[in-house]
Amino acid sequence: MSLKASLVRTAVKWTPKALMLWVGNRVLTGIARLGDIQIDLDHRQIYMRTTLVGEAEPIEVWLEDFAVGHDGQTHYAILRQARANKPWLTNLLGRITHRAFPIPDLPQLRPHMALVTELLKEQPGAPLRLR
How many CA atoms lie within 13 Å of 64's alpha carbon, on the beta-carbon side? Predict the structure, then answer.
C-alpha cells in the first residue's frame, strides 16, 4: 500500500465520530438526522443509524464487503452485503448487492480514483452481475 493510501486510511480511523456526525448532519439537513456512524476500512464495514425527518423510529444500516475496482477502462463500485433493521430496506439493498456499478468518469474525480481504488481494492469473492 502506498504512503498516501496509508495516511488516508489512518486519517479515517482517527477522525472523531463527532466530526463525522456533524458533517453528515450538515449534508442531510432537512432529510434525516444521523445518530451514529462507524466506518472500518480494514474490515470493509460501515454502520449508520439515522432518523428520517418526520419519522420517530431510526433506520439502521450495515454495509459490508464493499470495494472499488478497475477493469482497465472503467472504475466500478461493489457492495457484497447490506442489511437494515427494516425489511423493506433490506430487500431493496438486496437488489444492489453483488453487482458492479460503473463510476462516472468525471474530471473532478479522475485524479483521485487511483487512490480510492487502492484504498478499497476488491478482495477475491463471489462473481458479480455487471449492471
Answer: 9
